[in-house]
Amino acid sequence: MLTNDLKDLFVSLFLLHQAIPSHSTRRAIFDHFVRTRADEERKEKRAAQKAAVEAYKQLLEEASEGIDSKTGYQDFERKWGADPRFAALDKKEREALFKEKVRALEEKVQSARNAVITDFKSMLRECKDIIPTSRWTKVKENFRSDPRYKAVKHEERENAFNEYIAELKSAEREVEQAAKAKVDEQAKLRERERETRKRKEREEQEMERVKLKVRRKDATSSYQALLVETIKDPKASWTESKPKLEKDPQGRAVNPDLGQGEAEKLFREHVKDLYERCVRDFRALLSEAIAPEAATRTTEGGKTLVISWSEAKDLLRSDPRYSKVSSKDRESIWWRYADDMVRKLKQPDTEKPDTNARQQQQRRQQRRSSDPPRRR
């Protein structure tokens, strides 16, 4: 027989069927009901799962006093496996949450240990007698009454002390390295400063050298102008001319930028130029006075201007260019000029060089025999 609930359900369905004759509408209402019910079931399942997880975590919290880093999951299962909160989750979730709890406990223990070790090292740091070479056996008696000493396990005290000594040594090395780095940096700075000074000195020296070169050039030009203005005689001597040059109102002869011995050197070059100019003028005089026509004319004594120096100098003596050349140079210049003139006048184009040389030697002997001996 049907129960009253089933009867009521069938009655409700019958009435719904009568109230909603459309099949599609009834199907849509049914699908909506199914989806809504599925969502509710999922929410209920998640809520139940969450409640089971929270209950299991509560179990882990209650059992935490008996859990440490050495506790295994099997040990925990043997002790708490009968608890309903343990069985409410599957094994994979239980084991994952257990390991998470163990890690949290380990971190808590490690944090507490670190705090204790930090206090222990602070205690050591307060003792100024501890240096990087100190030994634990020598200093531990000084701390036995300190609570921070007692808070550390016996087997960990020396390790913590050694860690502190290592920190001291590391700090000492850092100080030494910093000091060395500072010394090195100062040395590099001094080296850079030295290089900068040297470069500046070189630049200043180069600038001074350029300035000196310019001053010397100006001093040389000024002194050469003074020589042109003052020294006209190619036979002038340095000893006699120096006092005269030093009286220059502009001080061009005593300019310190000329350099030692430079004034005399320039003087001698100037005099040399003057004399060379006189020699050129004398050669020009020879060309003018002893032209080819005049060279071939003979005097009453049967001599020519290219054979007899005495005849030639009588002709040239009246010209100012004659006296500006020394007597020794006059005759030697005349000799060379006469030889060239005779060669041009008498040497045929086909004459051999050795024949010409013999004739030139004969002419020189003839000149020497025709001229009176020169007085010394």
UniProtKB/TrEMBL annotation:
It holds the Pfam family FF. Keywords: Repeat. The keyword Amino-acid biosynthesis does not apply. Residues 49-104, 113-167, 216-273 form the FF domain. The keyword Oxidoreductase does not apply. Residues 182-205, 237-260, 344-376 are annotated as: Disordered. InterPro entries: FF_domain, FF_domain_sf, TCRG1-like. GO terms for cellular component: nucleus. GO terms for molecular function: RNA polymerase binding; transcription coregulator activity. SUPFAM superfamilies: FF domain. It comes from the Eukaryota. Residues 237-250, 344-355 have a biased composition (Basic and acidic residues). This is FF domain-containing protein. It comes from Triticum turgidum subsp. durum (Durum wheat).
